[in-house]
Structures are given as structure tokens and as C-alpha cells.
Amino acid sequence: MSYSNSYEFSVDTSMADKFGRLSPTGFQRLIISATEKELIRMQVDIPTLIKNYGVSWILLSLTVKVFAKIGVGENLTVKTHHTWRKSVLYRRDFAFYNSQNQLVAVGATFSSLFNLETRRICTNRDVYEKLTFPEDEELFEATHKPSKQGEFVQTECVAVRKSWIDSLGHVNNFRYGELTYDSIPTELEGMPFNRLEIYFTGELSYGEKVVLKRNLTDCILQVEGLHEDGKQAFLSKLFY
Q1: Which residues contact 69 (CB under 8 A, 6 or more apart)?
Q2: What residues contact residue 215 under an 8 Å CB cut-off, 6+ apart?
Q3: What is the pLDDT of residue 4?
Q4: In this predicted structure, what is the pLDDT of residue 170?
Q5: Whose CA is closest to 56, among 170, 133, 143, 227?
Q6: Strand ranges (DSSP E) for 29-149?
Q7: Which domains occur in the chain, in start order?
Q8: How many other CB atoms are there within 10 angstroms of residue 29's CB atom?
Q9: Model confidence, pTM
Q10: Mean pLDDT of 41-62
Q11: Tens digit of each residue's pLDDT (9 = 90 or more) over 149-169
């Protein structure tokens, strides 16, 4: 039995790059919007979890595999389902269909529950047992575990701005997609990527600076964001 639910979206100009293709942040927006709609339907949205348990959903990683161009003005149907829960880890899958009902991309997110008081992953088993849902199939291979290869070169150091901070008190995950896009070298501009991976490995707060480094090897661009003490804040990969 499939537990997928469908949501309709239209790709607007803010979701696309200057070449008219859906950008990394555009994919993030679609996935997060579909997730929020689904969580509201399931009555486990963030405001409800904060009120009932003092926790919030926290995104650990996001992966997208792209099969065809998605451009400005396209109407998409995004189907999503809860895939599984293993201990404190949840997986959710997504399928993107165009107006001709062609599968143009698939996605997956890995999430957990974030204790707003301790600012750490929630470890209360009772909460997780109450938030256990029917399971469905994995649509493609994806992981929540970041891995990087090769030597990275620093490209810039960016101060965290006030506008980057969301209601949970840290840099919103959309900013990591924007920093990834800003790190694309000139020689790759205009080239479509076929896979996107973003791993959110540490909180960034206002007043901090994020050191950006990148590595380009065998048509894979890796972008790493570091705290000033060298600890990783995020790692992203674009496959061309």
C-alpha cells in the first residue's frame, strides 16, 4: 500500500537561476513546502510539536536526483510519503512529476527531533514512539551521512546576517543552498546538475562567520561551510 500524498506547485522566478532552471534553493523550497503541507495534514507540524512536546523537526540532510530540466512556469505535482523511522532518524521520500505526468526528479530528506531547551537531538523515546507512522518504499539511494573527498580551497569568509536566522534561532537551511549556489565556479555556470546533496551538520548563529571552501573533482563540486574553530556546519555536493 502506498501512503503518498500529492501537492501542486508552480515554479516561479525566485526558484530558478538566471538560466531559467530550478536552483538548489528552488528544490529546497519545493521539498520543504511539500513537507510542511504533509505535516499539517498529519497534525505533527512544528507549532504542534513545540506545544505538545517542546521539540521541533530538524533537517539533517536533503538529496535530489534530477532526470529532466525543470524550468520557470512549470506546474509540478510533488508526491511525498514517510519512508521509515530508525531510532531517532526519519526518512521521507519525494517524487516530482511535470504536467505531462513524467517523473522529472526524486528526493529524500533525513530528519530528527530537536529539543528546543537543550539545543540537541531529542532522546526521549516516548516522544518518538508517539511519532511513528506507516512506512513506505525508498525511491532511490540516499544517505544522511556526509562524506568528502580531496583537498578543499577556501573561497571566502561570510558573516552570518540577521535575516538568515529563523524562528528556531539558527541559520535557516535555505541559506546553505544559497551559499552552495554562490560557490559554483564560473566554468560550471549554466551547466545543469543531476544530483544535489546537502548535509546540515552544525548550527550557525548570528554573530558567527562561516568559512567557505570548495573542491571540484570529476564533475562533482563539493562545498563545505566551517565555523571559525574549524568545525563543519554543512557540506553540499553538486553532481554534473
Answers
A1: 21, 104, 192
A2: 148, 149, 150, 151, 152, 153, 221, 222, 224
A3: 86
A4: 86
A5: 170
A6: 55-66, 75-86, 89-97, 103-115, 120-121
A7: 5-130 (3.10.129.10), 153-239 (3.10.129.10)
A8: 19
A9: 0.94
A10: 96
A11: 999 999 999 999 999 998 888
